Each structure stands twice: as structure tokens, then as C-alpha cells.
UniProtKB/TrEMBL annotation:
GO CC terms of this entry: endoplasmic reticulum membrane
Pfam families named among the record's database cross-references: adh_short (PF00106)
Protein name: 3-keto-steroid reductase/17-beta-hydroxysteroid dehydrogenase 7
Gene name of the encoded protein: hsd17b7
Enzyme Commission number: 1.1.1.210, 1.1.1.270, 1.1.1.62
GO molecular function, one term: 3-beta-hydroxysteroid 3-dehydrogenase (NADP+) activity
């Protein structure tokens, strides 16, 4: 049939189907490597990435160490509404079910760094919290997307929300379970989030706000979808040295980060949140892959932790969330979704009208 020619045979003979957003580097790529190391044969892995050149490089690296693995690529930019919708349509064409959706893609805008607060923190009892979360030393400037939405909010939260909504047919099936797994942060603070300003247009901590919103949304998703077999969980990767971390101080040379590593290793003796490398940071993501979703606590954030001796483990910690606020956020996201879909239809209609206009005098 034409569908069989369009997509490879492996899309029709599936065991576990896993889609990871932001999979071309950092924690997302480390997760993919760990998943394939556990089960190469029974896994259909899809890397959803914004930059296809980097995605192809990531796929090649995974296949170099796992030659028999089945790894597909999907172009998707969670900051673009049309990109999310197009990617979701592609997923529904390729797969009749999705077992795991890792909502890992995210951005942190280059922040304003408070040098005075940093050096003050170095000689205080809050030094570990400061390094682990950036609390008190970072403020950020957000941008607006082509869709007229705040970029951090859309990339980290709303794009993923729309993706889930679009993928309901392949996520929700009677008689089996599927999992949504969010990469959140210890930087997710209630104080940064405002229900009357969910896009964080008026604040200076868009990253923290978006991550706290993902904690709230996960709780609301469980309320809405558990009866349909879909479960949502949240993880914190700990303090990991990734491109996101390097972006905190864009003018800070990479080799200086390397010089700081011994300090970070020393700090890890006193705190287990300094996972430091992507492989360790992906611990909770990988751990959740092997759990029964019904047994998980919807109000817990699952933390990747590394002991001073380098042992990785996962620990649940209660999130600072409540059902009332989570439901209120969900309703606001539904309202925004409705507005976005309406605008997109209007744009498409205008575009069709422009293309259907008759040619002017003298045109060939």
C-alpha cells in the first residue's frame, strides 16, 4: 500500500514507542543513549528537534554505538505553533500509539548576572542553593515569538501542551498506559509564577515561571487523563553542565567552566543535587521509564541525585503545587489554545485568498 511505501517497515511493527523533545544534546541525548543501552531491539525512538543538522549528528552518534537501533528524526520547534501542529500530524501518520513522551526541550534566555549578589552568596550559607538554582543572582529578558507569545513560556510549556493535546489519539488507548515525563527544574519557584500573567510578560524570571507552570500542568494532566490511561510525571535533573548552563554566562569562556569543575565536584560531597554530567542528570528520566505509572505520586518531583562517591539514584520530593491552581492554569491554557487556533485559521485563510487573487494587468 502507499502508506507502507511512505514509511519504513519498523513503523508498523512496534514494541515501545518513545518520543523525546530536545533530544539532540545534553540530558535529552543522554537519555536516548541510556534507553538504547537497555533495550535496542524493542524500542522505537524518535528524536524531536528544532535543528535538523544537529539532530542528524545525534542520530549518527546513537547509531554508531547501537547499529541495530531504530532511531527516527522529527523536525519540531516548540516555540512555533505551526511547527508543533505539523510535527504532531507527522507523528500520527507514523505511529498508531505512543508509549512515552519526554517533554524535555527548553530554553533559558541569557540572564543578567548580579556579580555583587554572586560574591555575597559565595561566603554565605546559601552557596549551594545559589549554584543549584541561580536564585538571587539571575534575572532574564524574554522575547516574543512570531505567533505573538512569550518565547520561554511557549518553548518550555505551551508548545508541549499543544503537542499533548494534538497527540491524544496516539497517547490515550483503552487497556494500556502511556507516560508524559517533564524535565522541570529546582529553579521552579511558586514566587516566580503569577496566574494572572501565565506568560510572564511582566516578570524577570520567565524560566522559573515556565518550570513551575510545568509542575502545575503535570498535576492537572493527571486529573484529566488518568482515566484514559495517560499519566504525567515531573523530574529535576539537578545541576548539570550543559549548553543551557553555559548560556547562563555567555561571556564566560568554556575553559573557565572546566576549571570550576573541581569546585563543583567538591560541593557534591555536601549535596547530592550536583549531578554535573548529562548521563547523571538523566537518571530520573531513565528511572521513570522502568516504573509502572499508576504507582507514581502525581504531586512528587522525581530528582536525579548523585552521591559524593558518584552513585546515581532517584528520589521523589513533594512539589509546592495545589489542585486549585493547577486547574486554573489548565483552563487558561485551553483558552489560549482556542485563541491561537483561531488566529492560525485566519492566517491560513488570508494566505489562501492572496494565492487565489487573479493576476494583474500585464502579468504573464
Amino acid at each position: 500500500c502507499s502508506a507502507c511505501r511512505l514509511f519504513p517497515v519498523w513503523t508498523r511493527k512496534m514494541n515501545k514507542v518513545v518520543l523525546v523533545t530536545g533530544a539532540n544534546s545534553g540530558i535529552g541525548l543522554a537519555l536516548c543513549e541510556r534507553l538504547l543501552s537497555q533495550d535496542t531491539e524493542g524500542l522505537q525512538l524518535c528524536l524531536a528537534c528544532r535543528n535538523m543538522r544537529r539532530a542528524q549528528a545525534a542520530r549518527s552518534a546513537l547509531l554508531a554505538s547501537h547499529p541495530t537501533a531504530q532511531v527516527a528524526l522529527l523536525q519540531m520547534d516548540t516555540s512555533s505553533i505551526s511547527s508543533v501542529f505539523a510535527a504532531a500530524q507527522e507523528v500520527k501518520l507514523r505511529y498508531n500509539r505512543l508509549d512515552y513522551l519526554y517533554l524535555n526541550a527548553g530554553i533559558m534566555p541569557n540572564p543578567q548576572f548580579d556579580v555583587k549578589a554572586f560574591f555575597k552568596g559565595l561566603f554565605s550559607s546559601h552557596i549551594i542553593t545559589m549554584f543549584a538554582t541561580g536564585e538571587g543572582i539571575l534575572t532574564q529578558k524574554d522575547c516574543v515569538t512570531a505567533d505573538g507569545l512569550q518565547e520561554v513560556f511557549t518553548t518550555n510549556l505551551f508548545g508541549h501542551f499543544l503537542l499533548i493535546r494534538e497527540l491524544e489519539p496516539v497517547l490515550c488507548h483503552a487497556g494500556r498506559t502511556s507516560q508524559l515525563i517533564w524535565t522541570s527544574s529546582s529553579n521552579a519557584h511558586r514566587s516566580a509564577f503569577n496566574l494572572e500573567d501565565i506568560q510572564h510578560q511582566r516578570g524577570t524570571q520567565p524560566y522559573s515561571s515556565s518550570k513551575y507552570a510545568s509542575d502545575l500542568l503535570s498535576l492537572a494532566l493527571n486529573t484529566r487523563y488518568n482515566k484514559q490511561g495517560l499519566y504525567s510525571s515531573v523530574i529535576c535533573p539537578g545541576f548539570v553542565m550543559t549548553n543551557l548552563t553555559y548560556g547562563i554566562l555567555p561571556s564566560f569562556p568554556a575553559f573557565l567552566w572546566t576549571l570550576l569543575m573541581p569546585v563543583f565536584w567538591l560541593i557534591r560531597v555536601f549535596t547530592n543535587t550536583f549531578t554535573l554530567i548529562p548521563y547523571n542528570g538523566a537518571e530520573a528520566l531513565f528511572w521513570l521509564f522502568n516504573q509502572k505509572p499508576e504507582s507514581l505520586d502525581p504531586q512528587a518531583k522525581y530528582h536525579s541525585l548523585t552521591s559524593g562517591r558518584g552513585k546515581n539514584y532517584t528520589q521523589p520530593r513533594k512539589m509546592d503545587v495545589d489542585l486549585e491552581t493547577s486547574e486554573a492554569l489548565y483552563e487558561k491554557l485551553l483558552q489560549l489554545e482556542s485563541e491561537v487556533r483561531k488566529k492560525l485559521k485566519e492566517k491560513q485563510k488570508e494566505s489562501q485568498q492572496v494565492h487565489s487573487l487573479p493576476a494583474g494587468p500585464g502579468s504573464s
